[in-house]
Predict the structure.
Amino acid sequence: MITIFLTGGTGFIGRQLVEELLKEDVMIFLLVRSKSKATRVFQKKGFLNEAALHFIEGDLTKTDLGLSNEDKDRVLNTDVIIHAGGQMDIQATTQEATSVFLNGARHISEFAKRIHQLKGLQQFIHVVGYMSPFDDSNSKVAIDVFQEEHDYLKIKNPYERTKFLADLYIRQQASAVGYPLSVINPPTVVGGSTTGSTEQVAGLGLLVESMRRGLMPVIPGGNGYKLPLISNDALAKFIVQVVKLEQSCIQTYTLVPDKQHNPDISELLGVMSESMNIAAPTISVPLHFMKALMKSGISKITQIPSDGLNFITNRRFSNDLPKKIMGEDWFTKTSVMNFFPAVVADLDYRLMYPNNQHNYAFERTLNGNTVIYQIPGEGKPFILFHGLLSDGEDLFPLGLELHEQTGQPVWIADLPGLGRSPFKHEKNLIDLYLNVVKELSGKTAHGAHWIGHSFGAVILLEALAREYLDTKNTITLLQPPVAQKNSKSFNTPQLLNKWALKLSTANSLGRYLIGNGLFENIESIPKHYIAKVRSSFTSPRIVNTTLQLNRFLSKNYPGDFTKVPRSNLHIIWGDQDRHYSAPVQLGKIDVVPYGHHFPLNHPTETASYVLGN
């Protein structure tokens, strides 16, 4: 068994690393500021292992890391140190950055020295950004990193300067004392490959925020410039493999992907723009000119620090050493571009709802780049598609009711361009959504119970008409909007609609919801629903997708569904809807005394109707 002392384990990278390490024969002593907070974090993640994971209260900025005598003894008996601590804050002051990075490096290096003198330290692993100028060829620079008068790096940004000086200091100490050191240089870290979930919004999130606000009209740097990326799960797996190595010297591992898996910034912005459903920038501007503009005052307008552009580079990097450990095709298999659109949509979602708390009853995964929330169970899954002015999370209460009453699996999709799912351009807009049906139906060999609300019901109707769903499937349509009472309200110019959405107030939105019969009355609107919808209108992805789908509905319905098979079709209709009529041409309809959005505010009753109770 390997005993490990880990800093930064409760952070975005660290939590993923802990999860990967716990798959090995290890015992982890994790430096935390609060044991109770750390316990809650890992309980939520579902991998709190009291036999292998031990929390040690302390602080990187304090002498001896602020440890008790008992905890000092525990740390001094560890085999490996992994130092990944320090919050990402590119706007940190010199005092803050020095305290965390330089003083933290000094304090943890003192423990490394004492461990090595007592029993021999197997390895010190330091995780530091890929833009560090230090490597195995220049790590013996003889400067005192704590002397403020030196200007060796000539980097003004305190965050970058102190991180890189900490890298140098740790290299100096390892060389002087003689213990093995592995320095791991990851590029910008984004969310895991299975979800795209990127909790650290201070990195790539800065770029997403500028696009959300329409403040990225140009391509910084142009051809040859890149913003290298790696997923936190790929990084964690690599660190685990380094832990297993028998090191004898100082070794640097740079995890920047090969050129063919590392697109130019123009291509990257193109993917981001498509995911956000906005036009991509086409004009390139030299990076030095962009930085000068930002420093001249543009940063105050964009709220993006000029130093945020430092992560865009045309430097060349060697990744031969990581390939020797992970295999020649590792960068191909772990390329972030395979799920990058989902990362962009996730960051957009987090910027819309910074205080959103995910319901952990549902496990989140990706089907392509479409987010699917799942609860496991026995039997055919219920597959739920939401409508407009909502997302997958709004159907969680209904999904939970269906699962609790049947024990069957529940899958809830965030439809493309909405919720946490990215947009993707298709020649015919409806095909984007029918592709989700085809992909999910391919995962249900014995069929499924499909449930579509509002626009989600339209998707299922189209799928039936095109024979994408066979008789192994049953379909329930909740309020299918295919028979308009008054089509004029859809013919407002798009720009006016867009501004009406963006400038809507809580009162005006409430009046719209009640006036159109989406809910029966103000009291029936779910708590936080109006605030959530208003926040969603800060996203061009949500606004533009909503307007496009609204326009699609107004142009294409009422449609001809006379040939749609009705043997496995169930329709439930809320009679308080003031905009649409019940689609009697589709067959028998169960009428309920609710508004258009009844699956959102009456989940228990809706589940009973769906199940025929």
